[in-house]
Amino acid sequence: MYQNNEDILKNMMDLFSNPLFRTGFSEFVTKAQMEGLESAKKFWGISEYGRAFPFSGDIYERLTDWYSVLGFVPSTKYNQAVDENTKLKAENQLLRNMIKDLQLNLFTEGGEKAQQVWHEIIDKQIKMNAEVANTFFEAIRQFKASS
To answer: What is the DSSP letter of 70?
Structure first.
């Protein structure tokens, strides 16, 4: 069918300069973006463009593969990823807020318990000091009474 690379290049240039081919490619890419490559291939097989350019489906598929390699994805997949990203961000924020509330509750309870323990220690220390003072004064009284 093709003699050499120049013939292939000439035929491709003729193909890409054809407005019907360009319109068909635009519709093929739009279909591939909206519904995926498989749906676009089916569309191409039953469309008038597919009948006018029977071997161009392979070219479209190669161009679509090339776009994928560059990082282009169908808009449905992109929209799904954006929606999931939004949901995950909201869920992360909810979890962060829950952790913050739990930490605040823990610190509040811990602070109250520490304050309560501190007061108990101070009360015991005051009682011990009073007992030591009483014992000391009792010893002095006994010493004075015995002398």
So the answer is: T
Closest CA to 21 of 45, 68, 54, 70: 54
Q: Are 63 and 25 in contact (CB under 8 A)?
A: yes
CA-CA distance, 69 to 17, in Å (whole number)? Answer: 25
Q: Where are the domains of the chain?
A: 5-72
Alpha-carbon distance of 94 to 38, in angstroms, equals: 39
- Per-residue pLDDT reduced to its tens digit, 114-140: 889 999 999 999 999 899 988 988 888
For residues 71 and 65, give the distance between their C-alpha atoms in angstroms, rounded to a whole number: 10
Distance CA 146, CA 138 (A): 12
Nearest to 49 by CA among 18, 73, 12, 75: 18
pTM over 0.70: no
What's the rounded Cα separation, in Å, for the pair 145 and 147?
6
